[in-house]
Design goal:
The complex is a heterodimer of chains A (708) and B (207).
Chain A (H helix, E strand, L loop, with lengths): L14 H6 L14 E7 L5 E7 L1 H5 L3 E6 L7 H4 L13 E2 L5 E7 L2 H8 L3 E6 L6 H6 L6 E9 L10 E9 L11 E7 L3 E6 L4 H12 L6 E4 L15 H13 L3 E4 L2 H4 L9 E9 L5 E13 L21 E10 L10 H20 L4 H7 L4 E2 L4 E2 L5 H12 L11 E3 L2 E13 L5 E8 L4 E4 L9 H13 L6 E4 L16 H26 L8 H7 L4 E8 L11 E13 L5 E11 L6 H21 L4 E2 L4 E2 L18 E5 L23 H13 L10 H6 L1
Parallel strand pairs in A: 1-12, 10-11, 14-15, 21-22, 25-28
Antiparallel strand pairs in A: 1-5, 2-4, 2-6, 3-5, 7-15, 8-13, 9-10, 9-12, 13-14, 16-17, 18-19, 19-24, 20-21, 20-23, 24-25, 26-27
Helix pairs in contact in A: 9-16, 12-13, 15-16
Chain B lengths: L10 H15 L5 H21 L1 E7 L2 E7 L5 H8 L18 E4 L2 E4 L12 E3 L12 H8 L9 H13 L6 H7 L10 H14 L4
Parallel strand pairs in B: 1-5
Antiparallel strand pairs in B: 1-2, 3-4, 3-5
Helix pairs in contact in B: 1-2, 4-7
The chains are: A alpha+beta (708), B alpha+beta (207).
Pfam families (chain B): Fer2 (PF00111), Fer2_2 (PF01799)
InterPro entries (chain B): 2Fe-2S-bd (IPR002888), 2Fe-2S-bd_dom_sf (IPR036884), 2Fe-2S_ferredoxin-like_sf (IPR036010), 2Fe-2S_ferredoxin-type (IPR001041), 2Fe2S_fd_BS (IPR006058), Aldehyde_Oxdr_Iron-Sulfur (IPR052914), Beta-grasp_dom_sf (IPR012675), TAT_signal (IPR006311)
Protein name (chain B): (2Fe-2S)-binding protein
């Protein structure tokens, strides 16, 4: 992409495309002969399809084909026995309500939609259970260990402590629901050459999945995904609906576009699983933690297992000699979950950080003082030093900014008419990762630099961050630097997830820039030029239109000696109306301790976005299922409430902005996850401080406040 | 032939409806032949001939003549027929605001507006906001304040933001938040969007 209209070095490099409507998302590519797919979905929750009548649909105007388990094209992976991924159209089994069972393809979207309504299925129904709490309580229901049990010191030591807290915390299903609807354009051409326009967090992952399912060489598959309208984790895998579309294109020999409905976004592209957690904390009367027990149960599906890091934080976040954790997954008859921003850590942090606040209250301590008192110097889980950790400074800066001194430790102290004001704090933490990636750099005699990598940008500003890294290293103006991504033919990079893109790809950009600089220096020396000569002059003198280099980059061994995490501290002020039970988040200060900040403007936006997501998690978001039918009943934006403008106050973001000496050459740690992890607990803690009511079941809706 | 009732478009009822409408509307055809064709199951093919309606509208100061089925929304007409994909589909139910356009200067969820109801109207989409290469002040302000992340809700936010000021609903941050609440941003760029609107409002540029 080109950089146009540059006014500020910090502006998003693709901003101009996004504000003019020129940014093209997957569904916006025009292909000759493009057709439209619409899914037919199961109307029962569990059972077998016994018949599928597609005659009326096939006769409807404009319909080209109806593809289902009855007539699907060859997909060799699915012809094999066993294996856990759902084999779409290779089974007549229904695993959840709303599962795709056929795709109708027509020459317009409206005709495909109408024809899909004409497909009639009959089923042999089976008993089902979509109720996670019911499955958990049922001794006969299947349960699986989600992570090995962890124990340090004495198990359940909290039970013998001077001061004890033992509480149960409940989270409902939450859904990603990025604004862009999911789907894909698939174009299967003769000789098994496939081009797709995908909504994906990993073009290489999409390429590999399609290659595996259809057993064709990966290089036959071109995946394009330049602009992605949000992901939050849901685009970290290739979903059955995408494979269905590729099958449809293979079947009819034309490109097929599928864009699923908002209602389908709730059922077939994953969710943050429901969770029930128990946290036990023990402390001395002086406020030293002596025992932490964190036990978690997470919802999963019957056809694929899903696990995440729900109990990770308890193992290292606080200084404590006795810690034990357990994590179990409980399959129910729903679509399989997938990591949602902050993934399991956000789930776990709600429980742990609520319990920490409860303990501080039990000790009659300021929760900030209690956290500082129990802040660890080293990682007790791994017995390693932290590569960098500035959490005490973060506590101090955030507390000053929010006006923590106005907080009263006694709940319900700040009252003005029906409004009660409270302050809450919580911590978020996530692995600071660095993976392996390749970047190609092309330095041109016209003064420009092109960088290429098969990474993605789902919104954080990948291209902007990479451009700024190159800008600093090469001293090339940002409007002369282009970063190309979202194309599987570019040098390989991992999927965008786990807050690792800037660290991973940025390191490769760093290596490419250093290599280009040294090549220029050599050329300068060889042509008797000053070592500080401008690269344009050096290239021209050597009659070179450009030079290029590709570098693969990954962390060295030194990192093994350190424990590496990004941290966030969320400070929240809430106002709770004691007549209506309404909670308004009135002030937010989020402090990020995530190493060096490369792109301040987009980094700030990412922290703000995490806080907004946290408001939804804390106050409004809950996917509700009618367990009699196994169906979501609020699967739309009118009934499932994501935060809107009116829910969100001004948000202050503070960065510690100190480079981490270990993680990567930039000293930058990830921050996509920490922006959200812990936030919901800060709100719950603030609600308690405002009202004295401890809400342990999210979301904190008015009914719970009034009942509490 | 104005039936936007979805029940009219289901299976047999659609077929019966077509028989009747064929008799009424197909002056140039032999009604009995059309009815016979319907009975033989080729009625759905005939539907194509009768269901399209001529439509004239202006989009971003350019006149368009189209022939559309009555069930096509303004949003799908813009995206799929006119290839103006800056207007986004986020829910198709008027719940998210991603499809916001101006119809005769008023902000409208284009997913809730059937294309054929826009005969003779002037539509402005995100593609029509800038004056050539000169960005609209709201577009500039969104870039300056980073009023987006993934960018998918952005065209709708910008169209709504311009209308919000024109309507006189941008007199305070609280008022802006209230009148922008029909435009969802899942990335959570709200505070930056409000900053952008405040700046444009205070800048006093003619919108």
């Amino acid at each position: 992409m080109e950089n146009l209209f540059f006014k500020d070095d910090n502006d998003r490099v693709d901003g101009i495309f996004k504000v003019t409507g020129k940014a093209k998302y997957f569904a916006e590519y025009e292909l000759p002969g493009l057709t439209y797919g619409v899914l037919v979905t199961s109307t029962v929750t569990k059972g077998k399809i016994t018949s599928l009548d597609t005659k009326a649909a096939e006769k409807a105007p404009g319909v080209i084909a109806v593809v289902s388990h009855l007539n699907k094209p060859s997909a060799p992976l699915y012809e094999q026995e066993g294996g856990s991924p759902m084999k779409i159209f290779y089974t007549n089994q229904v695993f959840y309500n709303g599962q795709p069972i056929a795709i109708v393809v027509a020459n317009t979207f409206e005709r495909a939609t109408y024809a899909a309504s004409l497909v009639k299925a009959t089923y042999e129904k089976e008993d089902f259970n979509t109720d996670f709490e019911k499955a958990l309580a049922d001794p006969k229901a299947k349960k699986l260990q989600g992570q090995p049990n962890y124990k340090r010191g004495i198990e359940n030591a909290y039970k013998t402590a001077d001061v004890q807290v033992e509480q149960r915390y409940v989270l409902p299903i939450e859904t990603h629901n990025p604004m862009e609807l999911h789907g894909i354009i698939a174009d299967w051409k003769p000789a098994d050459r496939v081009t797709v326009y995908a909504k994906t967090q990993g073009v290489k992952a999409t390429q590999n999945t399609i290659a595996n399912v259809f057993k064709i060489p990966a290089e036959n598959i071109q995946v394009n995904s330049e602009f992605v309208g949000g992901g939050f984790g849901m685009a970290l895998r290739t979903w059955p609906l995408e494979i269905a579309t590729v099958m449809a294109s293979k079947h009819i020999g034309k490109p097929v576009k599928l864009v699923i409905t908002r209602m389908q976004m709730f059922t077939m592209v994953g969710n943050r699983p429901a969770a029930i957690q128990k946290v036990g904390l023990g402390a001395t009367k002086e406020g030293k933690l002596t025992g932490i027990t964190h036990t978690a149960f997470g919802e999963s599906s019957v056809y694929e297992n899903f696990t995440e890091g729900v109990v990770n934080m308890a193992k290292f976040m606080y200084q404590c000699d006795n810690v034990n954790t357990a994590y179990t997954i409980v399959p129910v008859d729903l679509g399989v979950p997938i990591w949602m921003r902050g993934p399991g850590e956000a789930t776990g942090a709600f429980a742990l950080e609520s319990a920490i606040d409860e303990m501080a209250h039990a000790l009659d301590m300021d929760p900030l003082d209690f956290r500082i008192m129990n802040d660890p110097e080293t990682d007790q889980q791994r017995n390693k030093p932290f590569s960098s950790k500035n959490i005490k400074e973060a506590y101090k800066l955030g507390a000053e900014k929010i006006g923590w001194s106005n907080r009263k430790n006694k709940p319900g102290s700040l009252v003005e008419g029906p409004w009660q004001t409270g302050y809450g704090v919580s911590v978020g933490v996530f692995n600071a990762n660095r993976g392996k990636a390749s970047v190609k750099g092309i330095l041109k005699a016209d003064g420009s630099l092109v960088l290429q990598s098969a990474t993605s940008d789902i919104g954080p500003g990948t291209g902007t961050g990479m451009t700024l890294i190159a800008n600093k290293l090469m001293d090339i103006p940002v409007n002369k630097i282009t970063f190309e991504l979202g194309d599987s033919s570019l040098p390989p990079a991992p999927s965008q997830g786990g807050s690792a893109t800037l660290s991973t790809i940025g390191s490769a950009v760093n290596d490419v820039c250093l290599s280009l600089k040294s090549t220029i220096a050599e050329l300068a020396a060889n042509s008797n030029m000053d070592a500080t000569s401008n690269f344009v002059d050096v290239l021209r003198k050597n009659n070179l239109p450009s030079i290029e280099v590709t570098k693969e980059s990954q962390a060295g061994k030194e990192r093994d000696n350190y424990s590496m995490y990004s941290f966030s501290i969320h400070f929240v002020q809430v106002k709770v109306n004691n007549l209506t039970g309404v909670v308004k988040v009135s002030k937010i200060v989020s402090v990020g301790d995530s190493g060096k900040i490369i792109s301040p403007k987009t980094a700030r936006s990412q922290m703000i976005g995490g806080a907004v997501g946290g408001i939804g998690m804390a106050l409004t978001e809950e996917a509700v299922i009618d367990h009699r039918f196994g169906r979501y009943i609020n699967n739309n934006f009118a009934d499932y409430h994501v935060p809107v403008h009116a829910d969100v106050p001004q948000i202050d973001v503070i960065f510690i902005d100190k480079p981490d000496p270990i993680i990567n050459p930039m000293g930058a740690k990830g921050m996509g996850e920490i922006a959200l992890i812990g936030f919901s607990a800060a709100v719950a803690n603030a609600v308690f401080n405002a009202t004295g009511k401890r809400i342990r079941t999210l979301p904190i809706t008015p009914d719970k406040i009034l009942a509490g | 032939m104005q039936s936007s009732d979805p029940n009219q478009n289901q299976g047999d009822s659609r077929r019966n409806f077509l028989k009747k409408s064929t008799i009424i509307a197909a002056v140039a055809l032999t009604p009995s032949a059309a009815v016979k064709a319907a009975e033989n199951g080729v009625d759905e093919r005939f539907a194509e001939l009768f269901e399209k309606i001529p439509l004239n509208l202006t989009v971003n100061n350019k006149a368009y003549t189209a022939s559309v089925e009555p069930r096509v929304t303004l949003l799908d007409l813009l995206r799929e027929e006119l290839h103006l994909t800056g207007t986004k589909k986020g829910c198709d139910h008027g719940q998210c605001g991603a499809c916001t356009v101006h119809v005769d200067g008023i902000r409208v969820n284009s997913c809730l507006s059937l294309a054929v109801t826009n005969e003779g109207k002037k539509i402005t989409t995100i593609e029509g906001l800038a004056e050539g290469d000169e960005l609209h002040p709201m577009q500039k302000a969104f870039i300056k304040h980073d009023g987006f992340q993934c960018g998918y809700c952005t065209p709708g936010q910008i169209m709504s933001a311009v209308a919000c000021i024109k309507e006189g609903h941008a007199n305070s941050r609280a008022e802006i938040r209230e009148y922008m609440s029909g435009n969802i941003c899942r990335c959570g760029a709200y505070p930056n969007i409000v900053d952008a609107i405040v700046e444009v409002k205070e800048g006093g540029a003619k919108l």
